[in-house]
Every structure is written in C-alpha cells, then in structure tokens.
Structure of Methionine aminopeptidase:
Amino acid sequence: MVEIKTPEQIARMRAAGLVVAEMHRRCAEAAVPGATTADLDRVAARTLADHGAKPNFLGYGGFTGNICTSVNDVVVHGIPDEKTVLKDGDLLSIDAGAIVDGWHADAAITIFVGGDADTERPARLTALNKVTEDSLWAGIAAMRKGNRLVDVSRAIESHIRRQPQPASGKYGIVEGYGGHGIGSEMHMDPHLLNYVDRRRGRGPKLVPGFCLAIEPMLTLGTPKTHVLADEWTVKSNDGTWASHWEHSVALTEEGPLVLTAVDGGRARLAALGVTAAPDPLA
C-alpha cells in the first residue's frame, strides 16, 4: 500500500524538509577536523529543538543518534559517538530526518571534512561524490506523472553507468539498500532500488501525492556490504570508500517538489530540463 498525500500534507512535509536542510547546513559547518561525530549529533539536536521539530532517527529500532554519521568505508547508518574523531579529507555522509506535525522528511549529504575543493582531494573521491549526487538528481527528474517506480531506479543506474568508471573497474551500486516511501512514517512502501531488478517488475505508477526518499549509495569497488556487531553500521566489504546522497521528493500536479532542498529543487531540476513544482510555503 502506497500512501498518497494531499497538498496540505505535502506542505507539512515541506516544513519538515526545511528543518532537515538546516540540520545539514549546521552539521556541515561543524564537521571540522578534530570534531567528533557526537559533536555533530548535538548540533542536529539543537537544530531540531530550535525549530520545534522532533527527530525521526532517535529511538528508531533502538538507534541512539539524531542523525547517521557514516565516514569513509561506512556506507550508511553510522552511529554518532565520542570515539570517532573527524580528520581532514574524511568523506562523511550526514543522514538527517525531522518530524513536523506528524509528517516526516529525510535526506543525506556527503561532504569532505575540511572542505570540498577538488584541487585538495583525490580525483577518484571527488568523482565518486559527484556521480552519486548527480545520479540522485537524475532519479528525481524521473519523478513524473505516468512513470513507474522502476523508471526512477533506471534513471539512477543509467546515469551512473554512463560516467567514466573508476580504476577499480566500476562503481559499486550498493545492493539491497535504497530509497523508500515517506510521509506519516519515515520508512514506508515502496522500497526503491538504485538499479533495475527485473524480478521486481515495474512497480507502482507515479501519481500526484506520491512521495519518495530517493537515496543512491555508491562505493569505489564492491556493491557488497556487511553490518557490524552494533547491528547498524554498514561497511563496504572491500574497504572502499562510499558516497550517499538523499532527498525527500513529492510528486504534485505541477511536477516534482524536492522537500529537503532549500529551493525546492528548482535550480538542479531546471538544468535537467524539468520544472520544479511551486513551493507551498513560499
């Protein structure tokens, strides 16, 4: 069962999405060499409190953080702690979520600790991060009335495979993990893979009110992962570094609205020839 949202419910999700965008902004500023991932979690908690929002990660299945902080070969679900000290050049995924008036938003960014200047980072890592982020926007652009869920998966995978591949062979599109429906809960049907699995069929038709958290995850090598003893932290099997990007997106009568982007996705979608839906909170 896919939950279809009304315009009023999408507006509430947009409010939650703007809180998530602010969490990312503040946490990225705090992600300096010497900071711990627990320091970032405290920044996230303060941001939620400042906006009267609730965390949707904290306590979820026993998770102990307000955000996920995944460093280098940790793909997703890294638990913030005092032991993980950030170093210059680390590749850090910050996955954040918020609840406003009972409605959820969820998004992730991946940044370099110490700055993102291409000249200061290995080319293979800057390429990994750019390909992952750009594949996210390719998937968002496929959120069109009449498309099927598989069209989003295909857009993500096709973009990745069209890019120059790393010296290791090809980007690993992480298996098993992916995006999800979102709305009155954080994780809802349908599950969205970042590649086409023909055994799953075409999936449901995309209609106005359909909301997805789209989140590609790539490594520089294997698509295979394993979960650590904490039952949360997901690492690449071969130790290659990973990138993870995510936005919550609502399909409206006017087109896609990126709930967790400050501008609603207008600039990035325009570059792809897609018009973003009007912001209900503007």
